[in-house]
Write a structure and sequence with these properties.
Length: about 600
Protein backbone atom coordinates (compact mmCIF):
# COMPACT_ATOMS: atom_id res chain seq x y z
CA UNK A 1 0.00 0.00 0.00
CA UNK A 2 1.51 3.35 -1.01
CA UNK A 3 1.84 6.35 1.28
CA UNK A 4 -1.46 8.22 1.48
CA UNK A 5 -3.51 5.46 -0.14
CA UNK A 6 -6.81 4.47 1.39
CA UNK A 7 -6.60 1.78 4.05
CA UNK A 8 -8.86 -1.27 3.82
CA UNK A 9 -11.93 -1.21 6.03
CA UNK A 10 -12.10 -4.39 8.12
CA UNK A 11 -15.18 -5.56 10.02
CA UNK A 12 -14.69 -8.10 12.80
CA UNK A 13 -16.98 -9.69 15.36
CA UNK A 14 -15.94 -11.07 18.71
CA UNK A 15 -17.34 -11.38 22.21
CA UNK A 16 -18.49 -8.10 23.69
CA UNK A 17 -17.57 -8.29 27.38
CA UNK A 18 -17.95 -4.67 28.46
CA UNK A 19 -20.64 -2.46 26.98
CA UNK A 20 -20.07 0.91 25.38
CA UNK A 21 -18.44 2.41 22.31
CA UNK A 22 -14.85 3.58 21.90
CA UNK A 23 -13.36 5.35 18.89
CA UNK A 24 -9.64 6.02 18.72
CA UNK A 25 -6.18 5.12 17.50
CA UNK A 26 -5.00 1.56 18.02
CA UNK A 27 -2.03 0.84 20.25
CA UNK A 28 -0.70 -2.65 19.56
CA UNK A 29 0.96 -3.92 22.70
CA UNK A 30 3.39 -6.80 23.02
CA UNK A 31 2.36 -8.33 26.33
CA UNK A 32 5.60 -10.23 26.52
CA UNK A 33 4.61 -13.64 25.23
CA UNK A 34 7.64 -15.88 25.42
CA UNK A 35 8.41 -18.34 22.65
CA UNK A 36 8.55 -21.99 23.76
CA UNK A 37 11.94 -22.37 25.46
CA UNK A 38 14.66 -24.55 24.05
CA UNK A 39 15.55 -27.71 25.91
CA UNK A 40 18.90 -27.56 27.63
CA UNK A 41 20.43 -30.51 29.48
CA UNK A 42 22.43 -29.55 32.55
CA UNK A 43 25.45 -31.22 34.03
CA UNK A 44 25.36 -32.01 37.75
CA UNK A 45 27.38 -28.95 38.68
CA UNK A 46 24.88 -26.56 37.04
CA UNK A 47 21.67 -27.81 38.67
CA UNK A 48 21.94 -25.77 41.87
CA UNK A 49 22.84 -22.66 39.89
CA UNK A 50 19.77 -23.15 37.69
CA UNK A 51 17.52 -23.43 40.74
CA UNK A 52 18.95 -20.14 42.04
CA UNK A 53 18.28 -18.53 38.64
CA UNK A 54 14.67 -19.75 38.78
CA UNK A 55 14.15 -18.43 42.31
CA UNK A 56 15.70 -15.07 41.38
CA UNK A 57 13.22 -14.78 38.50
CA UNK A 58 10.41 -15.59 40.94
CA UNK A 59 11.68 -12.92 43.33
CA UNK A 60 11.85 -10.34 40.54
CA UNK A 61 8.31 -11.21 39.45
CA UNK A 62 7.05 -10.71 43.01
CA UNK A 63 8.85 -7.37 43.27
CA UNK A 64 7.30 -6.22 39.97
CA UNK A 65 3.80 -7.04 41.19
CA UNK A 66 4.47 -5.32 44.51
CA UNK A 67 5.48 -2.17 42.62
CA UNK A 68 2.34 -2.36 40.50
CA UNK A 69 0.22 -2.82 43.63
CA UNK A 70 1.90 0.12 45.38
CA UNK A 71 1.26 2.38 42.39
CA UNK A 72 -2.36 1.26 42.21
CA UNK A 73 -2.86 2.01 45.91
CA UNK A 74 -1.30 5.44 45.39
CA UNK A 75 -3.62 6.03 42.42
CA UNK A 76 -6.64 5.11 44.54
CA UNK A 77 -7.63 1.96 42.63
CA UNK A 78 -10.49 -0.05 44.13
CA UNK A 79 -10.16 -3.15 46.27
CA UNK A 80 -11.26 -5.46 43.46
CA UNK A 81 -8.20 -4.40 41.44
CA UNK A 82 -5.84 -4.87 44.38
CA UNK A 83 -7.38 -8.27 45.12
CA UNK A 84 -6.36 -9.60 41.69
CA UNK A 85 -2.74 -8.51 42.22
CA UNK A 86 -2.80 -10.17 45.64
CA UNK A 87 -4.12 -13.38 44.05
CA UNK A 88 -1.23 -13.35 41.56
CA UNK A 89 1.26 -12.77 44.35
CA UNK A 90 -0.22 -15.72 46.24
CA UNK A 91 0.23 -18.00 43.22
CA UNK A 92 3.84 -16.84 42.75
CA UNK A 93 4.50 -17.84 46.36
CA UNK A 94 2.66 -21.14 46.04
CA UNK A 95 4.97 -23.90 47.24
CA UNK A 96 3.43 -26.43 44.85
CA UNK A 97 4.41 -24.36 41.80
CA UNK A 98 7.88 -23.68 43.18
CA UNK A 99 8.59 -27.20 44.42
CA UNK A 100 7.32 -28.91 41.27
CA UNK A 101 9.55 -26.73 39.09
CA UNK A 102 12.59 -27.31 41.30
CA UNK A 103 11.85 -31.04 41.24
CA UNK A 104 11.82 -31.10 37.42
CA UNK A 105 15.12 -29.18 37.30
CA UNK A 106 16.74 -31.61 39.75
CA UNK A 107 15.37 -34.89 38.46
CA UNK A 108 15.45 -34.19 34.72
CA UNK A 109 18.49 -31.87 34.81
CA UNK A 110 16.89 -29.30 32.52
CA UNK A 111 16.95 -25.50 32.36
CA UNK A 112 14.47 -23.50 34.44
CA UNK A 113 12.46 -22.30 31.41
CA UNK A 114 11.86 -25.85 30.23
CA UNK A 115 11.01 -27.05 33.74
CA UNK A 116 8.55 -24.21 34.33
CA UNK A 117 6.87 -24.85 30.97
CA UNK A 118 6.55 -28.53 31.88
CA UNK A 119 4.79 -27.65 35.13
CA UNK A 120 2.58 -25.15 33.30
CA UNK A 121 1.59 -27.78 30.72
CA UNK A 122 0.44 -30.12 33.49
CA UNK A 123 -1.53 -27.30 35.11
CA UNK A 124 -3.20 -26.38 31.81
CA UNK A 125 -4.25 -30.00 31.25
CA UNK A 126 -5.66 -29.95 34.77
CA UNK A 127 -7.81 -26.87 34.01
CA UNK A 128 -8.88 -28.13 30.59
CA UNK A 129 -10.77 -30.94 32.31
CA UNK A 130 -12.92 -28.40 34.15
CA UNK A 131 -16.36 -27.87 32.63
CA UNK A 132 -17.29 -24.74 34.55
CA UNK A 133 -16.57 -21.74 32.30
CA UNK A 134 -15.77 -19.35 35.13
CA UNK A 135 -13.27 -21.70 36.74
CA UNK A 136 -11.74 -22.71 33.43
CA UNK A 137 -10.96 -19.05 32.72
CA UNK A 138 -8.85 -18.95 35.90
CA UNK A 139 -6.23 -21.02 34.05
CA UNK A 140 -5.33 -17.91 32.09
CA UNK A 141 -4.24 -16.24 35.34
CA UNK A 142 -1.72 -18.99 36.00
CA UNK A 143 -0.51 -18.80 32.40
CA UNK A 144 0.04 -15.04 32.73
CA UNK A 145 1.93 -15.49 35.99
CA UNK A 146 4.20 -18.22 34.57
CA UNK A 147 4.75 -16.05 31.50
CA UNK A 148 5.94 -13.20 33.72
CA UNK A 149 8.52 -15.49 35.35
CA UNK A 150 9.65 -16.73 31.93
CA UNK A 151 10.14 -13.16 30.72
CA UNK A 152 12.32 -12.47 33.75
CA UNK A 153 14.29 -15.67 33.10
CA UNK A 154 14.99 -14.58 29.52
CA UNK A 155 15.67 -10.94 30.41
CA UNK A 156 12.99 -9.67 28.04
CA UNK A 157 11.47 -6.24 28.78
CA UNK A 158 7.92 -6.04 30.12
CA UNK A 159 5.79 -3.73 28.02
CA UNK A 160 2.83 -2.49 30.07
CA UNK A 161 -0.27 -0.43 29.59
CA UNK A 162 1.30 2.24 31.78
CA UNK A 163 3.68 2.89 28.84
CA UNK A 164 0.83 4.41 26.80
CA UNK A 165 1.24 8.19 26.51
CA UNK A 166 -1.98 9.22 24.76
CA UNK A 167 -5.62 8.01 24.73
CA UNK A 168 -5.70 4.78 22.72
CA UNK A 169 -7.56 1.55 22.00
CA UNK A 170 -5.30 -1.21 23.32
CA UNK A 171 -4.89 -4.25 21.04
CA UNK A 172 -3.16 -7.39 22.33
CA UNK A 173 -3.15 -11.14 21.92
CA UNK A 174 -4.23 -11.31 25.55
CA UNK A 175 -4.09 -9.09 28.60
CA UNK A 176 -3.15 -10.23 32.06
CA UNK A 177 -5.29 -9.02 34.95
CA UNK A 178 -2.23 -7.06 36.04
CA UNK A 179 -2.44 -5.20 32.71
CA UNK A 180 -6.13 -4.38 32.99
CA UNK A 181 -5.71 -3.44 36.65
CA UNK A 182 -3.36 -0.65 35.52
CA UNK A 183 -5.85 0.73 33.02
CA UNK A 184 -6.87 4.32 33.49
CA UNK A 185 -10.24 5.28 32.06
CA UNK A 186 -9.62 8.11 29.63
CA UNK A 187 -6.14 6.94 28.67
CA UNK A 188 -7.36 3.47 27.66
CA UNK A 189 -10.44 4.12 25.52
CA UNK A 190 -11.18 0.43 24.93
CA UNK A 191 -9.38 -2.82 24.27
CA UNK A 192 -9.37 -5.77 21.87
CA UNK A 193 -7.82 -9.20 22.28
CA UNK A 194 -7.37 -12.31 20.15
CA UNK A 195 -8.42 -14.61 22.98
CA UNK A 196 -10.57 -14.47 26.12
CA UNK A 197 -14.10 -15.10 27.31
CA UNK A 198 -16.94 -13.40 29.15
CA UNK A 199 -15.84 -14.60 32.57
CA UNK A 200 -12.08 -13.93 32.42
CA UNK A 201 -10.58 -11.55 34.97
CA UNK A 202 -9.80 -9.25 32.05
CA UNK A 203 -13.49 -9.07 31.15
CA UNK A 204 -14.52 -8.57 34.77
CA UNK A 205 -12.02 -5.74 35.18
CA UNK A 206 -13.17 -4.05 31.97
CA UNK A 207 -16.75 -4.08 33.26
CA UNK A 208 -15.76 -2.65 36.62
CA UNK A 209 -13.88 0.20 34.88
CA UNK A 210 -16.68 0.55 32.30
CA UNK A 211 -14.17 0.41 29.45
CA UNK A 212 -15.64 -0.97 26.16
CA UNK A 213 -13.99 -4.27 25.30
CA UNK A 214 -14.25 -7.07 22.74
CA UNK A 215 -12.34 -10.34 23.17
CA UNK A 216 -12.09 -13.65 21.31
CA UNK A 217 -11.30 -11.94 17.97
CA UNK A 218 -8.75 -14.69 17.11
CA UNK A 219 -6.45 -12.63 14.88
CA UNK A 220 -7.05 -8.92 15.52
CA UNK A 221 -3.35 -8.43 16.34
CA UNK A 222 -2.50 -9.50 12.79
CA UNK A 223 -5.11 -7.25 11.17
CA UNK A 224 -4.57 -3.95 12.95
CA UNK A 225 -1.49 -1.71 13.18
CA UNK A 226 -0.57 0.90 15.75
CA UNK A 227 -2.11 4.18 14.62
CA UNK A 228 -5.07 2.65 12.76
CA UNK A 229 -8.43 4.17 13.63
CA UNK A 230 -10.59 1.60 15.42
CA UNK A 231 -14.22 1.49 16.52
CA UNK A 232 -14.99 -0.82 19.47
CA UNK A 233 -18.63 -1.68 20.16
CA UNK A 234 -18.50 -3.65 23.39
CA UNK A 235 -22.28 -4.03 23.42
CA UNK A 236 -22.55 -6.01 20.20
CA UNK A 237 -18.97 -7.35 19.92
CA UNK A 238 -18.44 -5.41 16.67
CA UNK A 239 -15.01 -4.00 15.70
CA UNK A 240 -14.36 -1.78 12.67
CA UNK A 241 -10.77 -1.10 11.60
CA UNK A 242 -10.10 1.94 9.39
CA UNK A 243 -13.77 3.04 9.25
CA UNK A 244 -14.93 5.70 6.78
CA UNK A 245 -15.79 9.20 8.05
CA UNK A 246 -19.50 8.49 7.63
CA UNK A 247 -19.29 5.32 9.76
CA UNK A 248 -17.30 7.20 12.41
CA UNK A 249 -20.03 9.84 12.46
CA UNK A 250 -22.71 7.18 13.00
CA UNK A 251 -20.82 5.63 15.89
CA UNK A 252 -20.01 8.98 17.48
CA UNK A 253 -23.74 9.64 17.70
CA UNK A 254 -24.33 6.15 19.13
CA UNK A 255 -21.55 6.73 21.65
CA UNK A 256 -23.13 9.98 22.80
CA UNK A 257 -26.53 8.33 23.17
CA UNK A 258 -25.05 5.41 25.07
CA UNK A 259 -23.20 7.64 27.53
CA UNK A 260 -26.25 9.82 28.12
CA UNK A 261 -28.24 6.66 28.66
CA UNK A 262 -25.70 5.32 31.17
CA UNK A 263 -25.85 8.49 33.23
CA UNK A 264 -29.63 8.40 33.20
CA UNK A 265 -29.75 4.81 34.45
CA UNK A 266 -28.82 5.79 38.01
CA UNK A 267 -32.20 7.46 38.28
CA UNK A 268 -33.68 3.94 38.50
CA UNK A 269 -31.53 2.65 41.38
CA UNK A 270 -34.14 3.06 44.13
CA UNK A 271 -37.24 2.63 41.97
CA UNK A 272 -39.19 -0.64 42.10
CA UNK A 273 -38.53 -3.18 39.38
CA UNK A 274 -42.04 -3.36 38.01
CA UNK A 275 -43.73 -3.17 34.61
CA UNK A 276 -46.11 -0.40 33.56
CA UNK A 277 -49.02 -2.66 34.57
CA UNK A 278 -47.46 -3.25 38.04
CA UNK A 279 -45.95 -6.73 37.59
CA UNK A 280 -42.98 -7.01 40.01
CA UNK A 281 -39.80 -8.82 39.00
CA UNK A 282 -37.06 -9.18 41.59
CA UNK A 283 -33.59 -8.27 40.27
CA UNK A 284 -30.75 -9.98 42.11
CA UNK A 285 -27.00 -10.43 41.73
CA UNK A 286 -24.56 -13.26 41.05
CA UNK A 287 -21.45 -13.22 43.24
CA UNK A 288 -18.39 -15.31 43.98
CA UNK A 289 -16.55 -13.11 46.48
CA UNK A 290 -17.94 -11.21 49.44
CA UNK A 291 -16.49 -7.89 48.32
CA UNK A 292 -18.77 -7.93 45.28
CA UNK A 293 -21.75 -7.18 47.53
CA UNK A 294 -20.99 -3.44 47.70
CA UNK A 295 -21.34 -3.09 43.94
CA UNK A 296 -24.60 -5.06 43.98
CA UNK A 297 -26.12 -2.78 46.60
CA UNK A 298 -24.86 0.33 44.77
CA UNK A 299 -26.77 -0.85 41.70
CA UNK A 300 -29.98 -1.61 43.54
CA UNK A 301 -29.85 -5.41 43.79
CA UNK A 302 -32.72 -6.94 45.76
CA UNK A 303 -30.79 -9.98 46.90
CA UNK A 304 -28.29 -12.59 45.70
CA UNK A 305 -29.73 -15.11 43.28
CA UNK A 306 -26.52 -17.13 42.93
CA UNK A 307 -23.72 -17.26 45.47
CA UNK A 308 -21.01 -19.51 44.04
CA UNK A 309 -19.20 -21.34 46.83
CA UNK A 310 -16.41 -22.87 44.73
CA UNK A 311 -13.86 -20.20 45.68
CA UNK A 312 -13.60 -21.82 49.13
CA UNK A 313 -12.12 -24.94 47.51
CA UNK A 314 -9.61 -23.31 45.14
CA UNK A 315 -5.83 -23.01 45.47
CA UNK A 316 -5.53 -25.24 48.52
CA UNK A 317 -4.33 -28.73 49.39
CA UNK A 318 -7.14 -29.61 51.77
CA UNK A 319 -10.88 -29.10 52.09
CA UNK A 320 -12.44 -26.06 53.77
CA UNK A 321 -13.63 -26.63 57.30
CA UNK A 322 -17.19 -26.17 58.51
CA UNK A 323 -16.13 -22.97 60.27
CA UNK A 324 -14.62 -21.53 57.06
CA UNK A 325 -17.86 -22.25 55.24
CA UNK A 326 -19.97 -20.83 58.06
CA UNK A 327 -18.04 -17.56 58.35
CA UNK A 328 -18.32 -16.89 54.62
CA UNK A 329 -22.05 -17.67 54.39
CA UNK A 330 -22.98 -15.76 57.54
CA UNK A 331 -21.11 -12.68 56.37
CA UNK A 332 -22.97 -12.66 53.05
CA UNK A 333 -26.36 -13.24 54.70
CA UNK A 334 -25.74 -10.48 57.25
CA UNK A 335 -24.54 -7.99 54.61
CA UNK A 336 -27.59 -8.58 52.42
CA UNK A 337 -30.23 -8.76 55.16
CA UNK A 338 -33.21 -8.55 54.78
CA UNK A 339 -32.76 -9.36 51.08
CA UNK A 340 -32.69 -13.09 50.20
CA UNK A 341 -29.45 -14.95 49.53
CA UNK A 342 -29.45 -18.17 47.48
CA UNK A 343 -26.33 -20.21 48.17
CA UNK A 344 -25.44 -22.90 45.65
CA UNK A 345 -23.76 -26.03 46.94
CA UNK A 346 -20.41 -27.08 45.45
CA UNK A 347 -20.54 -27.03 41.66
CA UNK A 348 -17.16 -28.19 40.37
CA UNK A 349 -15.74 -31.52 39.32
CA UNK A 350 -13.15 -33.72 40.97
CA UNK A 351 -10.56 -32.26 38.61
CA UNK A 352 -10.53 -28.99 40.55
CA UNK A 353 -10.61 -30.37 44.08
CA UNK A 354 -7.60 -30.54 46.42
CA UNK A 355 -4.76 -32.62 45.03
CA UNK A 356 -4.75 -34.83 48.10
CA UNK A 357 -7.73 -36.66 46.58
CA UNK A 358 -6.49 -39.47 44.37
CA UNK A 359 -9.26 -39.74 41.76
CA UNK A 360 -8.65 -41.02 38.21
CA UNK A 361 -8.75 -38.55 35.35
CA UNK A 362 -11.98 -38.39 33.37
CA UNK A 363 -12.13 -38.33 29.58
CA UNK A 364 -15.23 -36.10 29.61
CA UNK A 365 -15.48 -34.10 32.86
CA UNK A 366 -18.47 -32.11 31.57
CA UNK A 367 -20.49 -35.30 31.82
CA UNK A 368 -18.61 -36.85 34.69
CA UNK A 369 -18.35 -36.76 38.46
CA UNK A 370 -19.11 -33.13 39.19
CA UNK A 371 -21.46 -30.88 41.17
CA UNK A 372 -24.25 -32.79 42.97
CA UNK A 373 -22.85 -36.10 41.67
CA UNK A 374 -19.58 -35.56 43.48
CA UNK A 375 -21.37 -34.34 46.62
CA UNK A 376 -23.48 -37.48 46.75
CA UNK A 377 -20.34 -39.56 46.24
CA UNK A 378 -18.73 -37.82 49.21
CA UNK A 379 -21.58 -37.21 51.69
CA UNK A 380 -19.09 -36.38 54.44
CA UNK A 381 -17.83 -33.34 52.54
CA UNK A 382 -21.35 -32.47 51.39
CA UNK A 383 -22.69 -32.57 54.94
CA UNK A 384 -19.90 -30.26 56.12
CA UNK A 385 -21.05 -27.62 53.67
CA UNK A 386 -24.75 -28.17 54.43
CA UNK A 387 -24.20 -27.89 58.19
CA UNK A 388 -22.49 -24.53 57.67
CA UNK A 389 -25.32 -23.32 55.44
CA UNK A 390 -27.92 -24.35 58.00
CA UNK A 391 -26.03 -22.59 60.80
CA UNK A 392 -25.89 -19.42 58.70
CA UNK A 393 -29.61 -19.69 57.96
CA UNK A 394 -30.54 -18.26 61.38
CA UNK A 395 -30.46 -14.85 59.69
CA UNK A 396 -33.74 -15.89 58.08
CA UNK A 397 -32.91 -14.70 54.57
CA UNK A 398 -30.88 -17.65 53.27
CA UNK A 399 -31.87 -20.38 50.79
CA UNK A 400 -30.02 -23.51 49.66
CA UNK A 401 -29.78 -24.56 46.00
CA UNK A 402 -28.56 -27.84 44.52
CA UNK A 403 -26.83 -27.67 41.08
CA UNK A 404 -26.91 -30.05 38.13
CA UNK A 405 -29.85 -32.13 39.35
CA UNK A 406 -30.74 -34.56 36.55
CA UNK A 407 -33.50 -36.57 38.19
CA UNK A 408 -35.76 -37.09 41.18
CA UNK A 409 -33.55 -39.73 42.81
CA UNK A 410 -30.56 -37.35 42.96
CA UNK A 411 -32.75 -34.64 44.44
CA UNK A 412 -34.17 -36.95 47.12
CA UNK A 413 -30.70 -38.22 48.01
CA UNK A 414 -29.44 -34.64 48.41
CA UNK A 415 -32.42 -33.69 50.55
CA UNK A 416 -31.89 -36.77 52.70
CA UNK A 417 -28.32 -35.68 53.51
CA UNK A 418 -29.66 -32.19 54.29
CA UNK A 419 -32.13 -33.75 56.74
CA UNK A 420 -29.29 -35.71 58.35
CA UNK A 421 -27.40 -32.43 58.83
CA UNK A 422 -30.49 -30.89 60.46
CA UNK A 423 -30.82 -33.87 62.81
CA UNK A 424 -27.16 -33.60 63.78
CA UNK A 425 -27.49 -29.89 64.60
CA UNK A 426 -30.63 -30.52 66.65
CA UNK A 427 -28.84 -33.13 68.74
CA UNK A 428 -25.93 -30.76 69.27
CA UNK A 429 -28.23 -27.89 70.22
CA UNK A 430 -26.94 -25.67 67.40
CA UNK A 431 -29.58 -23.22 66.10
CA UNK A 432 -30.67 -23.06 62.45
CA UNK A 433 -33.76 -22.15 60.46
CA UNK A 434 -35.80 -25.39 60.24
CA UNK A 435 -37.86 -23.90 57.41
CA UNK A 436 -34.95 -22.85 55.21
CA UNK A 437 -36.07 -23.02 51.58
CA UNK A 438 -34.46 -25.57 49.29
CA UNK A 439 -34.35 -25.31 45.51
CA UNK A 440 -32.58 -26.67 42.45
CA UNK A 441 -30.90 -25.33 39.36
CA UNK A 442 -32.51 -26.53 36.16
CA UNK A 443 -29.55 -26.77 33.78
CA UNK A 444 -29.70 -30.34 32.47
CA UNK A 445 -32.24 -31.22 29.73
CA UNK A 446 -33.46 -34.27 31.66
CA UNK A 447 -34.38 -32.03 34.62
CA UNK A 448 -36.18 -29.61 32.32
CA UNK A 449 -38.22 -32.42 30.79
CA UNK A 450 -39.38 -33.67 34.19
CA UNK A 451 -39.66 -30.20 35.75
CA UNK A 452 -43.32 -30.93 36.56
CA UNK A 453 -42.09 -33.73 38.86
CA UNK A 454 -39.16 -31.83 40.37
CA UNK A 455 -41.20 -28.76 41.34
CA UNK A 456 -43.36 -30.91 43.64
CA UNK A 457 -40.34 -31.55 45.86
CA UNK A 458 -38.68 -28.12 46.17
CA UNK A 459 -39.49 -24.58 47.30
CA UNK A 460 -38.13 -22.79 44.22
CA UNK A 461 -36.24 -23.39 40.99
CA UNK A 462 -33.62 -21.33 39.18
CA UNK A 463 -32.79 -21.91 35.53
CA UNK A 464 -29.05 -21.95 34.81
CA UNK A 465 -29.21 -20.89 31.17
CA UNK A 466 -25.44 -21.12 30.57
CA UNK A 467 -25.29 -24.90 31.02
CA UNK A 468 -28.85 -25.46 29.81
CA UNK A 469 -27.91 -23.98 26.43
CA UNK A 470 -24.62 -25.87 26.34
CA UNK A 471 -26.18 -29.25 27.03
CA UNK A 472 -29.34 -28.67 24.97
CA UNK A 473 -27.51 -27.44 21.86
CA UNK A 474 -24.42 -29.68 22.26
CA UNK A 475 -22.15 -26.62 22.23
CA UNK A 476 -18.93 -25.98 24.13
CA UNK A 477 -19.59 -22.35 24.94
CA UNK A 478 -15.90 -21.53 25.47
CA UNK A 479 -14.83 -22.96 22.10
CA UNK A 480 -14.49 -20.03 19.69
CA UNK A 481 -14.89 -22.33 16.68
CA UNK A 482 -18.49 -23.24 17.55
CA UNK A 483 -19.42 -20.14 19.56
CA UNK A 484 -21.69 -18.98 16.73
CA UNK A 485 -24.00 -21.92 17.50
CA UNK A 486 -24.49 -20.78 21.10
CA UNK A 487 -27.87 -19.15 20.49
CA UNK A 488 -30.07 -18.10 23.43
CA UNK A 489 -32.79 -17.22 20.89
CA UNK A 490 -32.90 -20.84 19.66
CA UNK A 491 -36.59 -21.93 19.59
CA UNK A 492 -35.74 -25.15 21.46
CA UNK A 493 -34.12 -23.19 24.30
CA UNK A 494 -37.05 -20.79 24.56
CA UNK A 495 -39.57 -23.62 24.63
CA UNK A 496 -37.60 -25.43 27.34
CA UNK A 497 -37.51 -22.30 29.52
CA UNK A 498 -41.21 -21.64 29.03
CA UNK A 499 -42.15 -25.20 29.99
CA UNK A 500 -40.03 -25.07 33.16
CA UNK A 501 -41.56 -21.76 34.25
CA UNK A 502 -45.07 -23.11 33.63
CA UNK A 503 -44.27 -26.21 35.70
CA UNK A 504 -43.03 -24.11 38.62
CA UNK A 505 -46.06 -21.84 38.62
CA UNK A 506 -48.35 -24.84 38.29
CA UNK A 507 -46.91 -26.07 41.59
CA UNK A 508 -47.17 -22.65 43.20
CA UNK A 509 -43.41 -21.99 43.52
CA UNK A 510 -41.18 -19.26 42.11
CA UNK A 511 -38.98 -19.56 39.03
CA UNK A 512 -35.81 -17.56 38.46
CA UNK A 513 -32.95 -17.35 35.97
CA UNK A 514 -29.31 -16.97 37.03
CA UNK A 515 -27.48 -17.44 33.72
CA UNK A 516 -26.11 -14.87 31.26
CA UNK A 517 -29.54 -14.44 29.65
CA UNK A 518 -30.84 -12.74 32.81
CA UNK A 519 -28.52 -9.73 32.42
CA UNK A 520 -29.19 -8.94 28.76
CA UNK A 521 -32.32 -6.81 28.15
CA UNK A 522 -33.15 -8.45 24.81
CA UNK A 523 -33.38 -11.80 26.60
CA UNK A 524 -34.83 -10.39 29.82
CA UNK A 525 -37.93 -9.16 28.01
CA UNK A 526 -38.60 -12.73 26.85
CA UNK A 527 -38.04 -14.09 30.35
CA UNK A 528 -40.44 -11.45 31.65
CA UNK A 529 -43.05 -12.54 29.12
CA UNK A 530 -42.61 -16.17 30.17
CA UNK A 531 -43.53 -15.14 33.71
CA UNK A 532 -40.13 -15.45 35.42
CA UNK A 533 -40.29 -14.16 39.01
CA UNK A 534 -36.66 -13.16 39.50
CA UNK A 535 -33.51 -12.55 37.47
CA UNK A 536 -29.98 -12.76 38.83
CA UNK A 537 -27.05 -11.10 37.03
CA UNK A 538 -23.81 -9.14 37.43
CA UNK A 539 -24.11 -5.79 39.19
CA UNK A 540 -23.59 -3.61 36.12
CA UNK A 541 -26.52 -5.20 34.26
CA UNK A 542 -29.14 -4.55 36.94
CA UNK A 543 -30.05 -0.96 36.06
CA UNK A 544 -30.23 -1.68 32.32
CA UNK A 545 -32.64 -4.53 32.93
CA UNK A 546 -34.66 -2.47 35.42
CA UNK A 547 -34.94 0.33 32.85
CA UNK A 548 -36.37 -2.16 30.37
CA UNK A 549 -38.84 -3.68 32.81
CA UNK A 550 -40.19 -0.25 33.74
CA UNK A 551 -40.65 0.55 30.03
CA UNK A 552 -42.98 -2.31 29.10
CA UNK A 553 -46.18 -3.93 30.26
CA UNK A 554 -46.32 -7.55 31.30
CA UNK A 555 -49.29 -8.00 28.96
CA UNK A 556 -47.29 -6.80 25.94
CA UNK A 557 -44.30 -8.95 26.90
CA UNK A 558 -46.56 -12.02 27.05
CA UNK A 559 -47.94 -11.24 23.59
CA UNK A 560 -44.40 -10.94 22.24
CA UNK A 561 -43.59 -14.36 23.68
CA UNK A 562 -46.69 -15.91 22.15
CA UNK A 563 -45.45 -14.61 18.80
CA UNK A 564 -41.84 -15.80 19.06
CA UNK A 565 -42.89 -19.30 20.13
CA UNK A 566 -44.25 -19.65 16.60
CA UNK A 567 -40.90 -18.86 14.96
CA UNK A 568 -38.68 -21.61 13.53
CA UNK A 569 -35.19 -20.11 13.79
CA UNK A 570 -33.07 -18.05 16.18
CA UNK A 571 -32.58 -15.40 13.49
CA UNK A 572 -36.35 -14.89 13.20
CA UNK A 573 -36.63 -14.47 16.96
CA UNK A 574 -33.64 -12.12 17.10
CA UNK A 575 -34.97 -9.93 14.28
CA UNK A 576 -38.42 -9.67 15.87
CA UNK A 577 -37.04 -8.80 19.32
CA UNK A 578 -34.67 -6.20 17.85
CA UNK A 579 -37.55 -4.46 16.06
CA UNK A 580 -39.68 -4.45 19.22
CA UNK A 581 -36.81 -3.13 21.33
CA UNK A 582 -36.32 -0.22 18.95
CA UNK A 583 -40.00 0.66 19.43
CA UNK A 584 -39.89 0.39 23.24
CA UNK A 585 -37.32 3.14 23.67
CA UNK A 586 -34.78 4.69 21.37
CA UNK A 587 -31.84 5.46 23.64
CA UNK A 588 -30.77 1.86 24.21
CA UNK A 589 -28.33 0.44 21.64
CA UNK A 590 -29.79 -2.93 20.73
CA UNK A 591 -28.10 -3.41 17.37
Amino acid sequence: MTEGSKKQVILMRGIGVSSGIAIGKAYLIDTGTVEPPSYCHLDDSSVDQEIVRFKNALKESIEQLKRIKKKMEKDGKGKEHIRIIDAHLMILRDQMLINDTVKVIKEEKVNAEWALRTVLRDLMEFFERIDDEYLKQRSSDIEHIVNRVLINLTGKKHETISDIKEPSVVVAHDLAPTDTAQMVKGMVLGFLTDVGGRTSHTAIMAKSLEIPAVVGLENVTRRVKTGDTVIVDGTTGTVIINPSPSVINVYEKRKERYENYGRALHFYKDLPSETTDKRRLRLMGNIEMINEITSLLDHGAEGIGLYRTEFLYLNRKDFPTEEEHFRAYKQVADRMFPHPVIIRTLDIGVDKLPVSMEIPKETNPALGLRAIRFCLKRPDLFKTQLRAMLRASVSGNMKIMFPMISGIEELRDAKAILEEAKDDLKREGIPFDPDVEVGVMIEVPSAAIIADLIVREVDFISIGTNDLLQYSLAIDRVNEHVAYLYEPFHPAVLRIIKSVVDAAHGAGISAGVCGEMAGEPEYAIILLGFGIDQLSMNALSILRVKRLIRSVSFADARKMCDTILGFSTAKEVEGYIASRMANIYEEELWI
